[in-house]
Amino acid sequence: MADISDDALLGDYDPAAYARPSVTVDLVLLGIRRGRLSALLMRREQPPQAGRWALPGGFVAIDESLDAAAARVLRDKVGLDGAHLEQLYSFGAVDRNPRMRIITIAYLALLREEQVEAAVRAGQVAVAALEGDPAAAIGEDRAPLPLAFDHQAILTLARDRLRGKIDYSDLAFAFLPPRFTLRALQDVHEAVLGTPLNKPAFRRRMLDRGWLVATGLREDEASHRPAELFTLGGARRPARSQ
Amino acid sequence: MADISDDALLGDYDPAAYARPSVTVDLVLLGIRRGRLSALLMRREQPPQAGRWALPGGFVAIDESLDAAAARVLRDKVGLDGAHLEQLYSFGAVDRNPRMRIITIAYLALLREEQVEAAVRAGQVAVAALEGDPAAAIGEDRAPLPLAFDHQAILTLARDRLRGKIDYSDLAFAFLPPRFTLRALQDVHEAVLGTPLNKPAFRRRMLDRGWLVATGLREDEASHRPAELFTLGGARRPARSQ
DNA sequence: TGACATATTCGCGTTACGCATATAAGTAAA
DNA sequence: TTTACTTATATGCGTAACGCGAATATGTCA
Question: What is the pLDDT of residue A16?
């Protein structure tokens, strides 16, 4: 490799003298669809890896922060606004892209059901359930979608991170509308974890956390006893760090 | 900003046509020193920010992965090998460096006491205790060291991440030699969390985890009953994801 | 009015943990 | 040799969290 001097960051180093990696952001768009954790993917039409499925992404512009680049990709490539966005991890293997050296900062984007449907209707993305380990993207026809580059590793890390955080953070609420039932919240947890949970224990735990505020309203369109609607209150504890 | 076409990642995009950010790695080197969580910092001799203290870092070469770049900086700038290294977070605010656009991938590096001392002896770095919120770097003379760029934010995130993970991951052992007493392990936890812990409860918790293997050996050089030495066994549960 | 489905609550056994206290095992000095 | 001292290690108990089965509540619909 090029010999980078010890005081590279200490003064008069000229980075233009060295070949520079490109930097992109990639979005892992996740939502709950039909009770399963699902991801939104774009089909690559051009080489490299034409025909494979990839995370929506884009280059980071010179005058744009990483968060801003992620928000721009969400808006321009997926057609969504206001989803929960948080940085996930950076991937920088030398050969992760065969054409050129690209370092990507992956972001987690959590969508409500209506946002998933809107994105699919907009036609840029397809939806696939995440199953197995490592996480495979299973299409509507139950066939796995072939993924481009290292995007399966990114998807797997995203799912595992979500699983690790769902139960002490407020991430679950990013999948839900402002008003939701405890059953809907439990459905989110179960879809993310891929395992059923005990209902009374889940209720107690969520209510004891003190985050939920009862609205007094009840769901309608139920052919049985309607459940109470809750909102996420402002008194959230600081989430544990990552 | 430059208008980056929608199919930037889909084919014939020429990234050389656009100005590209530089990419560095920065290392948050942490160790336990005199019972306090401490960081290793380098004094900047050249502008920008000459005289301030900074994380050791370096540019990512075109043919070098992020992890490899972090290991290289650890070796070349700090003079250490074999520390626990893990990626922390990427920082990409446009103005984080006044001279040029630099995106940095921050790494957490955990050192044993002897490694801290070796690095300090090598003379490239100084050691400072981390205290307060946001984390301030307190020098030997109890005066806070002025930090360069956004490095205080990076240090704070590193410390908070460590606090969040210490209790369900095996990170604590990276601060300890291969054989250690339960008291030493508790000292690590207390230094990281900045709070005393209940001794019997801590013992029980650690032993019930099943990670520790008793060696039958005892510490020496104690002027009282010597404690048993343990090692970290192979049967660790998969750590929770971040 | 009664069957049905789901929401919501209750009670109980188990486990994790904070905490005070006891016991064990070294060193060092009387 | 004994005793004080210090820290390691073990034990007992009260409390809080939680899994789980079962009971009760409240809607819709025939």
Answer: 59
Of A144, A165, A186, which closes a domain? Answer: A165
- Say whether B62 and A15 touch across the interface (CB within 8 A): no
Other Cβ atoms within 10 Å of A43 Cβ, number: 15
pTM of the prediction? 0.92
Question: In which band, very low, low, confident or very high, does the pLDDT at A233 lie, cut at 50, 70 and 90?
Answer: confident
In chain A, the number of structural domains is: 2
pLDDT at B1 over 60: no
Chain-chain contact of B58 with A22 (C-beta, under 8 angstroms)? no
CATH number where B204 lies: 1.10.10.10
Q: What is the pLDDT of residue B64?
A: 97
Give the pLDDT confidence of B66-103 residue by residue, as tens digits. Answer: 999 999 999 999 999 999 999 999 999 999 999 999 99
A60 touches chain B (CB under 8 A): yes
Closest Cα of chain B to A192: distance in Å?
Answer: 13
B167 touches chain A (CB under 8 A): no
- Tens-place pLDDT, residues B4-29: 444 444 445 555 567 899 999 999 99
Q: Two tokens at A212? A: 């939920």
Whether B88 is covered by a domain: the verdict is yes
Among A165, A188, A217, the domain-final residue is: A165
d(CA B235, CA B230): 14
Based on the domain organization, do A120 and A160 belong to the same domain?
yes
Nearest to A44, CA basis, from A68, A77, A93: A77
Contact assignment for A1 to B62 by CB distance below 8 Å:
yes
Interchain CB contact of A164 with B (< 8 Å) = yes
Q: Tens of pLDDT along B124-143?
A: 899 999 999 999 999 999 99
C15 C1' to B18 CA distance, Å? 60
* Residue A240 scores a pLDDT above 90: no
Domain presence at residue A9: no
Percent of chain B with pLDDT over 90: 85
In this structure, the answer to whether residues B55 and B30 fall within a common structural domain is yes
| Closest Cβ opposite residue A92 in set B6, B8, B65 | B65
Tell me which amino acid residue B225 is: R
- Residue B192 domain boundaries: 171-232
Any domain includes A8: no
- C1' (C5) to CA (A219) span, angstroms: 15
Q: What is the largest CA-CA distance in chain A?
A: 72
Note the CA–C1' distance, B26 to C28, in angstroms: 50
What is chain A's mean pLDDT, rounded? 91
Nucleotide C25, nearest residue via CA and C1': B225
Q: How far apart are CA A14 and CA B157, in angstroms?
A: 29
pLDDT at A89: 98
Question: Rounded to a whole number, what is the distance in Å from the CA of A156 to chain B's nearest CA?
Answer: 11
Sequential DSSP letters for B62-124: TT--HHHHHHHHIIIII---S-EEEEEEEE--TTSSSSS-EEEEEEEEE--HHHHHHHHHHTS
A89 touches chain B (CB under 8 A): yes
**Residue A196 and residue A210 in one domain:** yes
Q: How far is A102 from chain B (nearest CA, A)?
A: 9
